[in-house]
Structures are given as structure tokens and as C-alpha cells.
Amino acid sequence: MVFNSTEFLIFFAITFLLYYAIKPTWQWGFLILASSAFIMYHVPAFLLVILPIILFNFFTGISIQNAVREKSKKRIFIFSTVINIIILVFFKYINFIIENIAFVARNLNLETELSPLSILLPLGISFYVFQVIGYNLEIYWENAKPEQHLGHFAAYVMFFPKLISGPIERAHLFLPQIKSEKRFNYDYIKSGLQLILWGLFKKLVIADRIDPVTNLIFNNVDDYHGLSLIIGIGLYIVQLYADFSGYTDIALGLARTLGYKLTDNFNRPFQATSISDFWRRWHITLSSWVLDYIYTPVAASKRGWGKYGTIYALIITFTILGFWHGASWNFVIYGFLHALAVSYEFLTKKIRVKLSNKIPSAVYFPVSRILTIGFLGFTMIFFRFHNIGESIAALKNLVTNISFTTQGLRLGITFEDVFVILIGILIIEIIEHQKSKHEDIGSILHNKPGWFRWLVYYFFIFSIMFFGSFGVSEFIYFQF
Amino acid sequence: MELSEILSELNLLFQKLLSNESLELKMDTTAKDVDGWDSLNHMALITEIEKHYKIRFTLKEIMKLKNVEDMCKSVQSKM
User: Which residue of B has its CA nearest to A70?
Assistant: First the structure.
């Protein structure tokens, strides 16, 4: 049940009406019920994965707090983290591990009867397992107290707007919101609907319109070379951003209509002037999670190594960040390449600062942005393809049989597509630029006259109706 | 040692490591307020403080440092 489907529209309309009709003191319980229905609609058995994880982490959180001795606190924390990681590895990485063991065994001429297991990846497990690991860590570090209400904790982990693809919400930001009763608030609901409309525009008008073009190129990589591949990669970056940030806006908007404020995942990532800067702007709740819970502990433990300790921590952190996206060596390489780039930026920081003082900013920053997007595009070859063979073939094709004729491009794209995509990108850039100056998207229109606000709403509604692509429904990040 | 003395010593350490002679730390200063005090050189700052005072922070203590005042208090508690 994806956000842009009729089933979800019906589900959400019923949820919304009942949510405000029941006694506010029971809203948390109703959210658990609605989230359970949402999970069971996909695969009922997924509930049997999330519920034990909720129970387990609820009690480990309290046990860490209640343990008297420091050693006991540490033991409970390590135990809970190991169990959480084992669960994630079992569902997400077990077949990857089996395939790699079988591959090594075959190459050593060893007989093996290992075969992949037939298991489904439970909905949103990568996101909610990271949430509960962070929750226990904050308690262990004594930065937070454990939640004492099992129902509130369950609603935090299960909350359906953020369940499938995040944001990876911090407990200390979400749990206090559950404690307050949510009354029908026109301003909150309006700003939620504005976010949903903006998210749908990005998803349906931009991402889904680009989707057939990038599929054509990436599914037939042998037929595409040079410029056409570069255009394909460039379009994929735009598609990925429009798709994931569109999803995030819808998730934030849905939560807002129910009275909750979730953390935004994006801050104009294509304005980044370095890869380090890019990760401060892209999938922020994931990058800040790995920064706080992987990078900092590893860097702290190796701080005696000086700069090497920082680089060691960066390589571990970004490789895990890459691998988090999926069970494939491609994602490991994707993360590792980003680790190299951030390490390079760390080591050359002083030189680059001096350089930026000498070169006019009108030249330095645009060039930095182009180089950042260029490197991102290069790593996207490992992100988009499913195996190393395909990625290497694409890399070779980038520099062989280059054709610059329009016929040579064969992108299968119509003039209308080009027009809509270019105008769409321009609108995204204008709106996101405005959004960065305001508290949220609704504030942009806050002081504008009524006729202007409705003109903008109708523009987006009609753009979605006339230019939206309704054939593609899945969001890219659902697979992670 | 008084907190204000620790603050002025930390100020010198920060100025040297971040190559910023005009930097003026206050008790409520956080990483966000200082150019160049990012997550990558945060650990270098911690190491410099440890070397200067011949102390050692635990990971838990490092994770609890939210501003300069926390740093000063943590240093003071170890002296």
C-alpha cells in the first residue's frame, strides 16, 4: 500500500476521521491499531517481526537504566544491540552471506548444499531497527531516559507515516509528542496537506516521468555510451531525489495532519560544495544516525591514531552506510567510494580553504558543486546497478563508442517529457530555495493573499493531474 | 581550577587547532557556533584537551559533551 495509491487514500481517510473522532487519550492506541493494519495489509506475518522487537527493546531500555553497575548496563546494551543486528542481518543479509559462502566454496572446489532462503524483507525493518538501536544507545550514554509506557513506545516504532522509509526519527523528538493530546488543528492539517501536495508533485510529475527513461538506459546498458549514459545518470540523480524527497514530504505531511512533526531528510543536496557537505544535506536522518552512533564511537576509540583514526572511522562508517542500502557488493563499493571522498576532503581541508580564498567565489563554488555532482554521478553507477559486472560495463561504456548526435542518444524521451522534466526541476529549485529560507513549505505562502495561495495550489493539483505519471507506483527507497 | 580558567585555556587550544586567533569561546558555545568545529575535527580537539590536562575521557563522557561548559566541567571533574 504505497502512499500514492487509492487503497492508501481510503485507509488514510478512515484513519484520519476516526483519529479525531475518538477520545484524544486513546489516540496512541488507535495509531498502533492503524499501523498494525497498515503492516498487515502488506504481509500479516510482518507484525510478528516488529512486535517482538518493540517488546524486547522496551524492556532492554528500562533494564539499562535500572542496572546499578556500569558493567551490567554495558552488558545489557551490547546484548540488545547484538540481537537487533542479528535480526536485521537475518532478514536482510542472510542470502547475501549464503551466496558469498557458496561462491567461495565453489572456487575452493568444496562441495556445498547451501542455497538461498525464501524469506521476505519485513516492511521498514532497516529503518525501525536503526531507531531502536539508537534509542538504547542514548539510554546507555545517559542522554535519555527510557520510555515507561509500552503503548507509547510501540506507537513510536510503528507510526505508519514513517514506517516504510523513515525518517529515522529520534525517540527524544517523537515520544514527547505522543504525550500530548491532538485536537483538530486547521493550521497543522493545512501545512500537512501542503507538504503532501508538494511531495506528490515531485513523485508523480518528476520522478515517475523520468523512471521509464532511466529504466530503458540502465536495463540496456550495452546499448548506451558516453553522453547518453551521462544524461541517464544525471536523470537518475534527479529521479532519486524527487522520489525520496517526495516520499519524505508525503510522510512528513501525513504525520503533520495527525499532529506530529517529523524530521526532514533533505536540505537542497545539489547545492553541496563537497561530498561531506552533501551528506549533511541528503538523507539527513540516516547520515546523522551513522555520525552519532557509528562514526563518533569508532573515531573516539581510535583518537590516539590522530588523522588515521578519523580516516579509519570514516571508512567503517560510510561502508556500513552504503551496505545499509542493500545486500550487495555494489552498495559496499558505493559507501567505500564516499568514504574515500570524505577522507580526501578531510585531509585537504586547509589547502581547499586557502584555495577558496584565492579563487573568486563566483567560480569556486559553482565548480565545487559541479565536481560534487560529478562524483555523486560516478558513485551512482554502483548504486543503481545490481552487480559489479553491470557497473563495470557501464563505466567502460562511459568512455567508449561515444556519440554526440541526437540519434546516437536514443533516450526514448519525447519533447513533452523533456519540457516537463526541465520545468519541474526549475520549480523544485525555486520552491526548495524558498523553503530553505522559511520554517517549512507552508510558511512560504503564509503572508501571501488568498487568491495567490489558491492559484499555487491549483497549479500543483492540475500539474499532477495533467503531467503526472500514474503508471509507476513504488518508491525507490521502499526496497531498502 | 576555576571553570573560567579552564575556559580561557580551552580557548587557546581551540584557536591553535582551528587556526582562528579571533575565536572567543563562551560557556554556551556549541560546535554549530564555531567555523571549522565539525564532527571530523571534534575528536582532534578532545585529544588536544586530554594531552593538555593529562586526562582521559570515556566514550560516555565524550557523548555527553553538548557545549563548552560541559567540556570545562568534565575537565574540572578529572583534575
Answer: B60
Mean pLDDT of chain A: 90
Show me where the domains of chain A are located.
6-184, 188-468
What residues of A are in contact with residue B46 (Cβ under 8 Å)? 300, 303
Residue of B nearest to A301 (CA): B59
A433 is known as an active-site residue: no
Domain boundaries, chain B: 3-77
Phi, psi of B29 (to 5 degrees): -70, 135
- Catalytic residue (one of A152, A225, A283, A325): A325
Q: Do A309 and B62 touch (CB under 8 A)?
A: no
CA atoms of A397 and B6, how far apart (whole Å): 60
Q: Which helix (H) or strand (E) holds B63?
A: helix B59-64
> pLDDT tens digits, residue range A332-374?
999 999 999 999 999 998 899 889 889 998 999 999 999 999 9
Portion 121-160 of A in contact with B at CB < 8 A: 140-143
CA distance B64 to A256: 31
pLDDT value of position A478: 65
pLDDT tens digits, A46-83: 999 999 999 999 999 999 999 999 999 999 999 999 99
Rounded Cα distance between A229 and A231, Å, is 5
Domain B3-77 fold is 1.10.1200
